[in-house]
């Protein structure tokens, strides 16, 4: 089984099981992620976690598949890439936070997948590689956009132009990784993040995701309007009533 979706009550775990190919992307993985995003609209779901069955998070596109696509007309090759981009858009539009639990590393489109998530937990041994150039290819999956937002330009250029890997500790220093774990403990650390998120206000978290994501593209005026509208809506909800009361009463809020 190259991918499976596990329901853990208030969280969904997408397992990349394509271990024979270092977690290369597969149609089954696409289906599981899209299904997780769909199920995340159920209010009991608080987080989605992407992780791997094997020792490597995701090696990106299967080069054998790319070889087969070389004979296709360019328009058809664009359609295939659109499938990956639809997947990235789906992750970005998920109604709950998405966490990547990275063991081993993420390369090529696997790096795109990891950077599309809201939070990243990485094993201290993990390495992140924009490996396209080594195969005479160029980034896709929104990688250049994500790297431009998250990394210094010289580092993004070095990774993309030379295909050199960057270790998890360096990524964490730059703020691109949220937590560093011991080897084989990335999922365990991600589950602890999920526990923390599950105690928070679901609607507010969902709105915050959207505000932060849109802020990279919006003008300051547009973002001010978006924040005004979101705050006006949030302040009238039960979550705000509970959160404010708990703060004033010096107790932990209990969100339904």
Architecture overview:
The strands form 2 sheets. This protein has a 6-stranded mixed β-sheet, sandwiched between helices. A 3-stranded mixed β-sheet has the order 5-7-8. The two termini are 36 Å apart. Helix 1 packs parallel to helix 3 and helix 9 runs antiparallel to helix 10. The chain has 2 domains: 196 residues, 2-enoyl-CoA Hydratase, Chain A, domain 1, CATH 3.90.226; 47 residues. By secondary structure, the chain is α/β, with parallel strands linked by helices.
Cα distance, first to last residue? 36 Å
Side by side, the strands of the main sheet go 1-2-3-4-6-9
Structural class determined from secondary elements: alpha/beta
CATH superfamily heading of the largest domain: 2-enoyl-CoA Hydratase, Chain A, domain 1
Can you tell me the residue ranges where pLDDT is under 50 for at least 5 consecutive residues? none
CATH architecture of the largest domain: Alpha-Beta Complex
- What form results from the Cα inertia axes? globular
Number of domains as seen in the coordinates: 2
Biggest sheet features: 6 strands, mixed
Write down the Rg: 19 Å
How many helices does DSSP assign? Answer: 11
How much strand content do the residues show?
5-15%
Write down the secondary-structure element order.
Answer: EEHEHHEEHEEHHEHEHHHH
Report mean pLDDT, rounded to a whole number: 96
Residues in helices, as a percent range: 40-55%
In the CATH hierarchy, the third-tier topology of the largest domain is known as 2-enoyl-CoA Hydratase, Chain A, domain 1
CATH class of the largest domain: Alpha Beta
Number of strands: 9
